[in-house]
């Protein structure tokens, strides 16, 4: 279609592609010569869009071409002027590059999720000070154990605190002050928060039949603290904002993530490697402290027997590896040679009395 630029009338036209320009024959009988140097393309760079070519000044003549192959033919006949006009082949390359770029973005995102974020979380967890972890952990425990839910009977709390001291006694030194809080909740669970905070649910405490069984659970959770598993996992899972505050050491900003972190920590599943590390380290602690490792094994054997009952109360089963795998691994670890025979914890104390810690 040809427009003369002076009237709104449109005329059908035939266009011949020549080496030096376009020969335009209109239905009125006129033959026009458009040198490529005087022609500009103003439309037709996108798929499905009509090609518009113009020639002239303020009121230019125009050619409207609906043929999708027009531009490709022009490039083939006169490649030396190709830069003045859109190349449909480039459009196809652009689509291919767009697809490749999208795939690259997906691959990069997957790489960040699988390796980048965990690596950054590990770097962040390794460089934050213990004081940061302590404030973070305290904030989490305040959300996990609301006012009135902590079991604070002093005599029985002192017994548990003394057990922790026995477990960690073989350590040459530790930057953490371990604090165990028993929460009045029937859920069978225990977890370690950053900074040395351990939360034991009343339901789990009532599942233990000997002090050695509780010592085994505590040793495992203590190792999670020492290896900073909770810190790494929370920095990785909670949000990129927390990751940034950890990397920059912003202590004030991290408190805002206490509630979100408490929710994550309550359902967190550590990696298999982290659980095995905590098992191995916990067993080493027990053996070094001369605490009978059979208690730790017995507790998880009891959990294995109750696996068929797993429900909302048996959260320790849902957030830890299968008990049968753990029992087999702990049994192998317990065969390690020890410098001295085991001693009995709380000899003469009726362990059932510890259950009264919540009143």
Major β-sheet, in short?
A: 5 strands, antiparallel
**Distance between the amino and carboxyl termini:** 93 Å
Strand content: 5-15%
Mean pLDDT: 79
User: In total, how many beta strands?
Assistant: 11
Overview of this structure, please?
The chain is an alpha+beta fold and 359 residues long. The chain folds into three domains: 85 residues; 40 residues; 230 residues, no CATH class. The protein contains 14 helices and eleven strands. The strands form three sheets. It has a five-stranded antiparallel beta sheet, with no helix packed on it. Strands 3-4-5 form a three-stranded antiparallel beta sheet. The protein is rod-shaped and about 120 Å long. The N and C termini lie far apart (93 Å).
Sum up the structure in keywords:
three-stranded antiparallel beta sheet; 11 strands; alpha+beta; 359 residues; rod-shaped; 13% strand; single chain; 49% helix; 3 domains; five-stranded antiparallel beta sheet
Blueprint (SSEs and pairs):
Elements: E1 2-3, E2 10-11, E3 13-17, E4 21-26, E5 31-35, E6 40-43, E7 51-55, E8 61-65, H1 70-77, H2 88-127, H3 130-144, H4 154-168, E9 179-183, E10 190-193, E11 197-201, H5 202-207, H6 211-226, H7 229-237, H8 240-248, H9 251-254, H10 258-266, H11 272-288, H12 294-305, H13 315-318, H14 323-333
Parallel strand pairs: 9-11
Antiparallel strand pairs: 1-2, 1-8, 3-4, 4-5, 6-7, 7-8, 10-11
Helix pairs in contact: 2-7, 2-8, 3-10, 4-6, 6-11, 6-12, 7-8, 11-14, 12-14
């Amino acid at each position: 279609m040809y427009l003369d630029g002076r009237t709104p009338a449109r005329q059908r036209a035939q266009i011949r592609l020549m080496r030096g320009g376009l020969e335009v024959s209109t239905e009125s009988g006129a033959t026009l010569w458009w040198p490529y140097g005087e022609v500009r393309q103003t439309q037709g760079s996108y798929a499905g869009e009509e090609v518009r070519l113009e020639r002239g000044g303020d009121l230019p003549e125009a050619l409207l071409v609906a043929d999708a192959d027009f531009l490709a033919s022009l490039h083939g006949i006169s490649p030396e002027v190709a830069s003045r006009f859109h190349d449909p082949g480039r459009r196809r390359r652009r689509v291919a590059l767009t697809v490749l770029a999208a795939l690259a973005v997906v691959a990069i995102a997957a790489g960040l999720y699988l390796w980048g974020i965990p690596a950054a979380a590990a770097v962040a967890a390794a460089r934050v000070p213990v004081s940061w972890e302590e404030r973070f952990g305290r904030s989490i425990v305040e959300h996990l154990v609301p006012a009135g839910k902590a079991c604070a009977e002093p005599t029985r709390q002192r017994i548990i605190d003394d057990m922790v001291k026995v477990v960690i006694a073989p350590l040459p030194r530790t930057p953490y002050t371990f604090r165990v809080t028993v929460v009045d909740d029937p859920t069978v669970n225990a977890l370690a928060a950053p900074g040395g905070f351990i939360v034991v649910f009343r339901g789990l405490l009532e599942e233990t039949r000997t002090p050695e069984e509780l010592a085994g659970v505590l040793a495992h959770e203590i190792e999670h603290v020492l290896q900073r598993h909770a810190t790494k996992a929370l920095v990785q899972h909670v949000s990129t904002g927390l990751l940034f505050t950890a990397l920059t050491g912003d202590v004030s900003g991290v408190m805002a993530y206490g509630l979100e972190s408490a929710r994550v920590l309550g359902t967190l599943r550590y990696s298999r490697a982290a659980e095995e590390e905590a098992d191995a380290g916990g067993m080493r602690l027990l053996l070094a402290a001369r605490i009978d490792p059979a208690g730790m094994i017995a507790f998880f054997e009891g959990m294995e027997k109750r696996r068929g009952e797993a429900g909302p109360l048996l959260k320790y089963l849902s957030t830890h590896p299968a008990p049968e795998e753990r029992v087999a691994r702990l049994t192998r670890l317990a065969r390690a040679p020890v410098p001295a025979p085991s001693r009995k914890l709380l000899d003469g104390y009726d362990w059932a009395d510890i259950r009264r810690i919540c009143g």
